[in-house]
Amino acid sequence: MLDRAGTPPKDDTTRRVRFRGAGFVPASSRFGGWIALALVIALWQAAGSGGLVNPLFLPAPSAIVRAIYELAVSGALWQHLSASLLRIGVGWLLGTAAGIVVGFAIGLSRLARSVGITFISALFPIPKIALLPLLILWLGIGEEPKIATIALGVFFSTAISVYSGVDGVPRNLIRMAQSFNVPFATIVRKVIWPGALPAILAGFRITASVALLLVVSAEMIGAQYGIGAFVLQAGNLMQTDQLLAGVVILSVFGLVVGRVINLLETRLLHWR
Amino acid sequence: MDLIANHISHRFGDLAVLDDVSFTVSAGEVVAIVGPSGCGKSTLLSILGGLLQPSSGAPELRGTPPADSLNPLTFVFQDFALLPWATVEENVEFPLLHAQLSAAQRHALVDDALHRTGLTDFRKTYPKQLSGGMRQRVGISRALAVRPAILLMDEPLSALDSQTRELLMEDFVRLLADGGMGAVYVTHNLEEAARLADRIVVLSRRPGRIREVVSVPMTRTERGEIAAREKLLALQNQIWSLIRNEAIDAEREVQHA
Questions:
Q1: Which one of A34, A169, B25, B155 is least enclosed by Cβ atoms within 10 Å?
Q2: What is the pLDDT of residues A165-209, one digit of tens each?
Q3: Is there a contact between A65 and A250 (Cβ–Cβ < 8 Å)?
């Protein structure tokens, strides 16, 4: 029986129900990752400073930082970085623009879907870097084949994420718009575009990585300047501190792009 | 303006869903469609509203809609169908964007629709911030904004809890009170049908055929009174007896599917 306050009387057998609902929650602590990273770097540095690791095979973090600083002071960093950024920027924009147009066409037109998916299925699995020699043959030795390689890699991933996004727009929203006689163009602009945007932005995350991968590969095959060319050159000269400096710069670039996409998602997908 | 179901039949591939369904919804009349699960109620409503092409027969309109009607046949959806990236106000304004209206006229229609559904204070809110009942109010508000002649309501209360259903039912009664707007109300809830409809079309099990059309011999205002409850209950029992056995068969069929 309950007492007036609603608290049941206790006896010797009364015990608290054990909490069993902990864990299995996809959450992370705010600083955990940074602390782990700092620990690894500290251990790495200690191993390097203590002479436990040959600096030729694995230079200490301080040597890598010094190499980046020297590259920055000499102006070589900007020279290589600007060459890579230009290729990535132009290639990514061209590939993304074409991918969005083709992705929307596939998502909205039965004919475009029949043709487009066939071609994309056939061409998407080809490693785009394998096409670089052919592109050099077509476009000459210069920036164009490298940019075209990046654009091709970005195009396919973008087109796939866009038409998947369009396919994923809830049909009930489209039917709602049709029930109000909303014109096709307005449905695309006001329903399908915002509905597909989460998938499109997720695609940007992938295509940024694809662009980075392809620019490094293309620069390793045929470029005088660029982070890929710099890393290859440093490797050939056994300058592992410079090689890893290039790798760190690529990593930072990836982090910056990820951050920009996070900001875009926060701004454009605040309704989620 | 009358809405006519003219010998409508429909098949999904080999599956016959509707078979020769004909009835008329007169101007200002509320017609409920009830029947066992899977009898084609929602399919019929989609066909009536022009969202689905029937296999044979046709939905037809007779007469002219009110001059100020921007979308004579307007749906209220079971799942609300709100744009999650748009605020309440933007959702209500959405069907008006392509109409030949000035911004001031548009805003006036939105304001009026929000006021009629008690949403004025929530105009800047996003759907995810609202309860199910409030979301359906936004759906109703959006429908009212285009000044419909006939509302096509597909189980508009079925996703809501019983208290919210009761509150929204009161809203429907109020909105349909003056007879200026008709409605086709698809529901599996006989109480809702008896409370709201002037006539109840009872469909048979799939393929849905009209089994009976039952008139409700009371005004909607009278139905809200305690004295009317017994009569309404008798009416519900009458309809339930028509569909009970088929509802049991339909449920078993769904479970075995």
A1: A34
A2: 999 999 999 999 999 999 999 999 999 999 999 999 999 999 999
A3: no
Query: To the nearest whole angstrom, how far is the Cα of A180 from the nearest Cα of chain B?
Result: 6
Considering CB atoms only, which of A190, A191, A271 is closest to B128?
A271
pTM for this model (two decimals) = 0.84
The ipTM assigned to this model is: 0.90
A173/B83 Cβ within 8 A: yes
Determine whether the interchain pair B51/A178 forms a contact, defined as Cβ–Cβ distance below 8 Å. yes
Could you give the CA distance from residue A242 to residue A71 in angstroms, rounded to a whole number? Answer: 9
pLDDT tens, position by position, B29-67: 999 999 988 889 999 999 999 999 999 999 999 999 888
* Sequence letter at residue B170: E
B74 in contact with chain A, both atoms CB, cutoff 8 A: yes
Give me the count of residues in chain B: 257
Could you say which DSSP state residue B129 is in? G
- Rounded to an integer, what distance in angstroms lies between the CA atom of residue B102 and that of residue B120? 21
Question: How close is the nearest chain A Cα to the Cα of B117, in Å?
Answer: 19
B227 Cα to chain A: minimum distance (Å):
40
